[in-house]
Design a protein that fits this description.
CATH architecture of the largest domain in chain B: Roll
Largest sheet of chain B: 11 strands, mixed
Radius of gyration of chain B: 26 Å
Distance between the termini of chain A: 19 Å
Largest interface: A-B, 45 and 45 residues
CATH architecture of the largest domain in chain A: Orthogonal Bundle
CATH superfamily of the largest domain in chain B: Dipeptide-binding Protein, Domain 3
Radius of gyration of chain A: 24 Å
Helix content of chain B: 25-40%
Oligomer: heterodimer
Number of helices of chain B: 16
CATH superfamily of the largest domain in chain A: MetI-like
Structural class of chain A: mainly alpha
Number of domains of chain B: 3
Helix content of chain A: over 70%
Shape of chain B: globular
Distance between the termini of chain B: 38 Å
Order of helices and strands of chain A: HHHHHHHHHHHHH
Number of strands of chain B: 19
Shape of chain A: globular
Structural class of chain B: alpha+beta
Number of helices of chain A: 13
Number of strands of chain A: 0
CATH topology of the largest domain in chain A: MetI-like fold
CATH topology of the largest domain in chain B: Dipeptide-binding Protein, domain 3
CATH class of the largest domain in chain B: Alpha Beta
Number of domains of chain A: 2
Chain lengths: 309, 503
């Protein structure tokens, strides 16, 4: 699946960038540059060639693992992205971890105590959080925790320990809150589906402790839809990192895309799209493998289909 | 016994400190790093390429030009020791001795010749009017022009005319943007594109070395964040503060607001070549009269801007105000009637998505409705505007600006209306104007030049190809402890003398 997705995504972005107005040579040289200087710069960048030629050249280089050189500073795009990818992954992973650690327990408690006051209150809060715009949430967090309490820096990525972790907190909360709410709601409905099954009654009747009933019998069956939601939303999370990284001046791939768009730096934008697309397909692969691990029925499906071949 | 010894030593140190006056105590209270932030990342650190304000805001601290501006925007020699015009097209410059680049090598006449040739290749500064530069003596060069150009020293004072180290630049022109070497008060220490740039004091600086050891630029795209970072003390100086936020910063005793009239004029370019109503000079005059600039400044800029009744910023050389640029709706209506458009017409304005600009476009929409002009607003990226212009798309009005970095009127007259200028967005093609400009531009300073300048300026007054709306005010937020910071009308603010007191 990765290859068709990559071809589709790059072709789409390449076409948009090709037909979007704006001249990278002018952006690099600034207003007031002479026509000769602009023309020389366009030749140097290779943007005078035809669309097909440029796209073909891009795809050929991509197969060699070369994403081209940035219009903006002549540096290899691969290096520029790799320098930022780690920062985006730290943020995305800590966002997901936060969402899972908060979302799943909240969902389980809500389901087990269905219709209790606790359930109603948490479900109201999760609905509220899901509906909150990221931008607004980020600013509220900054005002409360940076300006008033002074616990965390308002923006930027600090270096070293524990500065880095401290500066990671607010972006993580911004990125992870909506996601946590979504996981909580999915977990709740998924657990509710399972909680009334007979084997749960049986497990309880066997005299198993409640913890074992919940984690071993209930969750293992309820996890499939939750993992699907997590996998699918990883893409949304990567997209959300564009906004979060911009607000918190976090030097990741999301910020880089925004900057590159303002410079009309086509190689850099395409590089980011390719990187994010690869990440997304990788996460989906991991999700598929997790299904097999969680549900023996799916594992056996894999086995039979392989046997058929 | 040990304790006694310790006490004695402490007393001795204290006494010494007292004898030496307050300085050690005072020095200890200053921060060793000044952090400033702006919204957009640099285009490049190669100062000869990154001519934009956002690039020079940093690189200005690493480079010096032959000339520079003093606090009142007068040109003074900088890396040049002195200069004189040998004739009306040859400028002789004596270069300062003993100036060192960050790599330790000494600046020579060779470097200056290389820089001038390089600037000419880049195009914009000399605009084709460059013959060559030769070394004429011990540390003296002669810059030769094809035709006379008195504002040359102003042009050579802009930050991007900085003197480059020939050997370093020639060895790796593309790499210079990542390892810039200049003669300025700060040298590059480390950076992460799009995030931060840290400079370190250059101890061998030819003037007094900078007072603060490190200078860091942080890129913070969100305006709200730039203000919050000031409040939390994470940054010491914050650029590009909107007028609407000034009251909030002023309300905080730990902060201060620094303002200064800039060299930037917000303009409305009218398509003089239009086959529609805007091709009619009376219509353009009517539009000029119908715009209430004061209301725009008061309502959308919270008073932080200056109504501009001239196409030239008031602090620039050869500035002239125009009386008849004033707001008068009745007069505007009369002009519309004369042009045969008493029932009005529909037209469009192009603007970018900057909030202030779209608000101004809306204000213009309301104001022009008074003379029955139905204005529709088209919001598009500046690059789109430029591409559409070069592609020859039809247009009516464009809300735009220019930043007069040379602080000399000549540059405006050339760029805005000269028929071959790429910045002639008014589509103004008038051989009479070109002739008048050539004559003015080629005349040495004196009464004759002033008279010729008035002739050139009159084309703006009579034909109204460009309307100046207001002169932008630079608004900078800073911690109350900032001292010695020099605000520049062209955005290349200086930190050489700047210090920040610790809270």
């Amino acid at each position: 699946m990765t290859i068709p997705v990559l071809i589709g995504a790059t072709f789409l972005v390449f076409t948009i960038m090709h037909f979007a107005p704006g001249d990278p040579a002018r952006i690099i040289l600034g207003a007031g540059a002479s026509e000769e200087a602009l023309e020389a710069m366009r030749d140097q960048l290779g943007i005078n060639d035809s669309f097909i030629l440029r796209y073909g050249r891009f795809m050929l280089n991509l197969m060699k693992g070369d994403l081209g050189t940035s219009y903006r500073n002549g540096q290899p795009v691969t290096g520029l992205i790799l320098g930022r990818l780690g920062n985006t992954l730290y943020l995305a992973i800590s966002g997901i971890l936060f969402a899972i650690i908060v979302g799943i327990p909240v969902g389980i408690i809500s389901a087990i105590k269905q219709y209790s006051t606790l359930d109603n209150v948490t479900m109201f809060i999760t609905l509220f959080v899901t509906a909150m715009p990221t931008f607004w949430l980020a600013l509220i967090l900054v005002i409360v925790f940076s300006v008033n309490l002074g616990w965390f820096p308002a923006s930027g990525m600090a270096k070293g320990f524990p500065g880095f972790l401290v500066s990671l907190v607010l972006p993580t909360l911004t990125l992870g809150c909506g996601f946590a709410a979504l996981i909580a709601r999915t977990t709740r409905s998924s657990v509710l589906d399972v909680v009334r099954q007979e084997y749960i009654d049986l497990a309880r009747a066997k005299g198993l402790p409640e913890r074992t009933v919940i984690w071993k019998h209930m969750m293992k069956n309820a996890l499939i839809p939750i993992i699907t939601v997590i996998g699918l939303n990883f893409g949304v999370l990567l997209g959300g990192s564009v906004l979060t990284e911009s607000i918190f001046s976090w030097p990741g791939v999301g910020r880089f895309v925004v900057e590159s768009i303002s410079f009309k730096d086509t190689p850099a934008i395409l590089g980011c799209v390719v990187t994010l697309a690869i990440l997304f397909t990788l996460v989906n692969l991991i999700v598929d493998l997790l299904y097999a691990f969680l549900d023996p029925r799916i594992k056996s499906q894999y086995r039979t289909s392989r046997g058929d071949n | 016994m040990k304790k006694f010894e310790f006490l004695l030593k402490t007393a001795a140190v204290l006494a010494a400190a007292l004898l030496m006056g307050q300085s050690p105590v005072w020095a200890a209270e200053l921060k060793d790093t000044i952090v400033f932030c702006q919204g957009n990342d640099l285009t490049t650190m190669d100062i000869s390429i990154g001519m934009q304000e956002r690039a020079c805001a940093l690189t200005n601290n690493m480079f010096d030009s032959l000339f520079t501006f003093d606090k009142d925007m007068n040109v003074i020699p900088d890396l040049a020791e002195s200069y004189k015009w040998l004739d009306d097209r040859t400028l002789e410059v004596k270069i300062r001795k003993g100036v060192k680049f960050h790599n330790g090598s000494e600046m020579t006449a060779e470097d200056v010749v290389f820089t001038m040739d390089h600037i000419n290749e880049r195009g914009s500064l000399f605009a084709g009017n460059y013959e060559k530069t030769d070394i004429t003596g011990d540390n003296t060069v002669a810059i030769r022009l094809k035709s006379p150009n008195p504002p040359l020293v102003n042009l050579l004072a802009v930050p991007y005319a900085a003197v480059l180290p020939k050997a370093v630049y020639v060895a790796d022109p593309a790499g210079f943007a990542r390892k810039p070497i200049g003669t300025g008060p700060y040298k590059l220490k480390e950076f992460q594109e799009g995030d931060y740039y840290t400079l370190e004091r250059f101890d061998d600086y030819w003037k007094t070395p900078a007072k603060t050891q490190y200078l860091t630029l942080r890129i913070v795209p969100e305006t709200a964040q730039r203000i919050i970072l000031l409040e939390t003390g994470e940054v010491d100086v914050s650029y590009e503060i909107p007028g609407s936020s000034v009251a909030r910063i002023k309300g905080d005793t730990k902060l201060q607001v620094i303002t200064r009239d800039s060299m930037k004029i917000i303009t409305l370019s009218l398509n003089c070549g239009s086959k529609g109503p805007l091709g009619n000079a009376n219509v353009r005059r009517a539009i000029q009269k119908a715009i209430d600039k004061q209301t725009i400044v008061d309502s959308f800029l919270y008073g932080y801007g200056k109504v501009s009744n001239s196409i030239i910023p008031s602090s620039a050389k050869e500035f002239a105000e125009q009386e008849n640029y004033k707001f008068d709706v009745e007069e505007a209506k009369k002009l519309m009637k004369e042009a045969g458009y008493e029932n009005g017409f529909s037209t469009t304005i192009w603007t970018d998505s900057n909030q202030t600009n779209t608000e101004i476009a809306q204000a213009l929409q309301a104001q022009l409705a008074q003379i029955d002009i139905d204005l529709s607003i088209v919001v598009q990226d500046p690059n789109t505007t430029f591409s559409r212009l070069t592609a020859g798309d039809d247009f009516d009005m464009i809300l735009d600006f220019f930043n007069l970095v040379s602080a000399h009127a000549d540059q405006v007259y050339k760029r805005l209306l000269y028929s071959t200028s790429t910045s002639n967005w008014s589509n103004y093609k008038n051989p009479e104007y070109d002739k008048a400009y050539d004559k003015y531009s080629g005349t040495v300073e004196g009464p004759e030049r002033d008279a010729l300048r008035a002739v050139v300026n009159n084309f703006f007054v009579e034909d109204v190809p460009v309307i100046s709306i207001y002169n932008e005010t630079k608004i900078i937020g800073a911690g109350a402890g900032l001292e010695g910071f020099i605000t520049s009308p062209i955005g290349s603010h200086e930190y050489q003398e700047a210090t920040v007191k610790k809270n």
